[in-house]
From TrEMBL:
Transmembrane segments: none annotated. Residues 50-445 form the Amidohydrolase-related domain. Pfam families: Amidohydro_1 (PF01979). The keyword Cell wall biogenesis/degradation does not apply. Its EC number is 3.5.2.2. Its cofactor is Zn(2+). GO terms for molecular function: dihydropyrimidinase activity. NCBIfam families: D-hydantoinase (TIGR02033), PRK13404.1 (NF009941). This is Dihydropyrimidinase. Belongs to the metallo-dependent hydrolases superfamily. Hydantoinase/dihydropyrimidinase family. InterPro entries: Amidohydro-rel, Hydantoinase/dihydroPyrase, Metal-dep_hydrolase_composite, Metal_Hydrolase, Metallo-dep_Hydrolases_sf. It comes from Paracoccus niistensis.
Amino acid sequence: MTALDLVIRGGTVVTAADSYRADVGVRGGRIAAIGDALTGAETIDADGLLVLPGGIDAHVHLDQPTSDGTVMADDFASGTRSAAAGGNTTVLPFALQIRGQSLRACVEDYHRKADGRCHTDVSFHLIISDPSPQVLGQELPALVRDGYTSFKVFMTYDDLVLNDAQLLDVFEVARRERALVMVHAEGHDAIKHLTRRLEAEGRTAPYYHGQAHAQIAEREATHRAISHAQLIDLPIVIVHVSGREPMEQIQWARARGLKVHAETCPQYIALTADDLRGLNMDFEGAKYVCSPPPRDTDSQAAIWQGLRDGTFDLFSSDHCPFRFEGPADTGKNNPRARTSFRWVPNGIPGVETRLPILFSEGVSKGRITLQRFVALTSTNPARLYGLYPQKGSIAVGADADLTLWNPTLTRRIRQADLNHGCDYTPYEGLEVTGWPVRTLLRGRAIALDGVPMAEPTGTYLPRGTSEAFAQAGHGLAPPP
Ligand code: URP
Ligand code: ZN
Ligand code: ZN
Ligand code: ZN
């Protein structure tokens, strides 16, 4: 047996199933041994640290164009640097199809933006905004076979929304090709109706974004998406679930044996609609505009219960960064946004703070176990999105994607310390206990103590079929 390149010595190895003290040995970028008293060319002392499978953030927006020309605050370089500093080794951004554009051209576009610039491994989900006969009949099946095995569809946003017939058409192709569909479930017409009404009443501050994107509209669309998936017999993922009402629809479906998976995000446990008020119903509130919006403390409690009981499989950031100040006439605080919340770009940053927030609010405060933390942030995303067992676990043969985590280090989240391209964090001042001190991608450091390495060593990952297709029923094992 050839010598190990690297040994991570004396840490507590944590997987979705267990934790135990062991050395982890790395050779050729992979985990080659897990055991006692391993020796290698290089040693990292992990005494007192947790050794976690690298974070996999399965919902990230980088370098996406917007309909009004607003430029996203992160490209693939800055976004993945920020991800690495936050303890992630893989991120799954979107390749967004502009209507009229061929899907293949879209994917090539995103490869040009990403290739050679990424600090974590990456793989694209496709956003289908124009399911033409050419896209459904030829491009999509070919792309799934090339390893683009998941796509997102939208039930709202003028430039992305699909009607019910189009949703069903996409679902049918997904079933045939065994691709996993992620659904943005918010009812477009209800949101438009509420927006018009609020604007007519002069209620145009960012706060009213939260009322226009009512939880009832999310609940209705969640049920509609589930029903369509049931008609086609397709597993789906409801992404960025914000609160109790859509959760009840997901639980209703699960109780009937439907293959509905669910994702939630930091904003739904760490923010509420009150944050959208800003200082005094002013434009500071725009810093919290995302869709679905943060809800109330009752929904936060429901989300925690869902993170514990397995209603949620995934905890992703939905990192979608827009600067608050400019440049020029864009950004969250732009002149047009001041006329109505309708024009505030939707989305908030969070790829770097996802793991610390869930660890601190969840594990450190005793709301979820370490195993649940790893399942939600690494193992389940790998399994659902066709990356397991290369990614998402600590096992011999897996990529040596490891995050060394100090469970007792207390920090305050500060914009000044973050590596994203955004000019603010919605979590400014939040105290967290538990912090990533070293992120290793295939055995090589990509971040140390919150500072990313200069060299981008990430690669593109073609993906296999989701485990959602492997089993009958709901699929992923429920938490113990
Ligand atoms: O407001 C959000 N979440 N923007 C990002 C796009 C999306 O819908 O995920
Ligand atoms: Zn969405
Ligand atoms: Zn599930
Ligand atoms: Zn998103």
